[in-house]
């Protein structure tokens, strides 16, 4: 009697270089793909709107690709641990394989599930599929985790190179007995009333095939100009792989090895390193999205919130050209150029003096690439409360940033053209005055830390 293997897909919605899938195929029994939409387990953060839109498309692509190879994707909704155990019983499965997650609540779920499955005699194994280097393997000389990027990345890359990507299975022996599966459309991941996703549909095609195409295009057409032009938002020199990596449509191992085979990829690989640094930080500090990494920042004197200013920032109506352009690009496409993200975030935190957590939550809801590590990690870096945030009082001047990185105004012209008109809008605040207020607030933090 066959005892099927279940592959529990999470943020690894691909067939190529998927260690959990490879282990299931190699076990030699029928394979069942499973995705659990978990919005119920304690500590699990519900997905934002843009992320839900992307998830729908990526799951549809994965479902179709599994079917082409003889497999199937079972969709179920609920708290992950009982749902997976129920699926094991329904399928009389003998093994469950998954690729590791690194957030605190996710690790607790996976650890408890692995233990309970093994107690029942079910094989339960997890694999490294989402990070190049496991967080517990990169340590300082004193055995602690790193808080500064450069020595972290030096230590991570000092040892053996990341493993080679695993080949994609060409055939999958699907289970003969069909399991009950929910319908993807019934999850209502796509917006309807109103349907605000028109710009996302015009900009993106979720799924593994599109991810692989984009990687090839970037390496063959854009990598040469990446180091020189990556900070220019209108240059089109960025990889646009961040949502692909966030959803695991392409693995970091694949990106790494295909990049090292291409001349001139060093700077791009260091950006992969920054992603690794964010996830390593989350592993050691699970409260990254809600708690200052540097506790002295608990003393930051956030003033009373001005809702109209926050709304102006969200809608791209601040009267500051580069900020407005970026926020409108975000709302339209679910994406914002990284240089502009830093400028827009700095403006919110250090000119409007709005708590970084409000900005992090807005990006969580509107970015297609927002994940549990990079989104809060980068917001804390900009705010000065996070890892490697030196100097922590850095304040990006959005006007100088526009002159330096959007010299001909192409980016602003595309997203906020009124700023280049004869009568551009007035900023909602004075940049110099608010900069001084922010520096005063940081001095308060320094005094509180000394007392």
From TrEMBL:
Residues 3-132 form the Photolyase/cryptochrome alpha/beta domain. SUPFAM superfamilies: Cryptochrome/photolyase FAD-binding domain, Cryptochrome/photolyase, N-terminal domain. Its EC number is 4.1.99.3. Its cofactor is FAD. GO terms for molecular function: deoxyribodipyrimidine photo-lyase activity. Keywords: Chromophore, FAD, Flavoprotein, Lyase. The keyword Ligase does not apply. It comes from the Bacteria. Belongs to the DNA photolyase family. This is Cryptochrome/photolyase family protein.
